[in-house]
Design goal:
The protein is α/β, with parallel strands linked by helices. The protein has one domain: 2,3-Dihydroxybiphenyl 1,2-Dioxygenase, domain 1 (Roll). The strands form 2 sheets. Strands 1-4-3-2 form a 4-stranded mixed sheet, with helices on one face. A hairpin with a 5-residue loop joins strand 7 and strand 8. The two termini are 23 Å apart. The model has no long low-confidence stretch (mean pLDDT 95).
């Protein structure tokens, strides 16, 4: 349903470095650089990083990225922690969502809640 989303970040370069590292285990990579904007995706330009336009903290965004297996969720979490992200929730099953929901949650450099999730058993 979502074609693309853009999030404002304090430093496009720092955030792009973070997303280079944490999206790689999920098959994501930089797909375009357009002026100061940088996009990521597996196909197309799903996630755009754009410079913040106002002073002060941005409102938290929650982004969940699809993983093709539980090992990819584990690798996402490991890459994020290695990149300096705060771990909000280590990889585990979340049966309160559904029986096969396996996810991990971290904070990106701008305080956003970033998740990798696999829905298959």
């Amino acid at each position: 349903m979502i074609d693309h989303i853009a999030i404002q970040v304090a430093s496009v370069a720092a955030s792009a470095d973070f997303y280079d590292r944490v999206l790689a285990p999920l098959g994501g990579e930089r797909t375009k650089e357009f002026g100061e904007f940088i996009s990521f995706g597996t196909t197309g330009h799903t996630l755009w990083l754009v410079p913040a336009t106002e002073e002060g903290p941005a409102r938290e965004v929650h982004l969940a990225f699809a993983a093709d297996g539980r090992a990819a969720v584990d690798a996402f979490h490991a890459a994020a922690v290695a990149a300096g992200a705060e771990s909000l929730h280590a990889p585990r099953l979340w049966p309160e969502y559904h029986a096969s929901y396996y996810g991990a949650f971290v904070r990106d450099p701008d305080g956003n809640n970033i998740e990798a999730v696999c829905h298959t058993p």
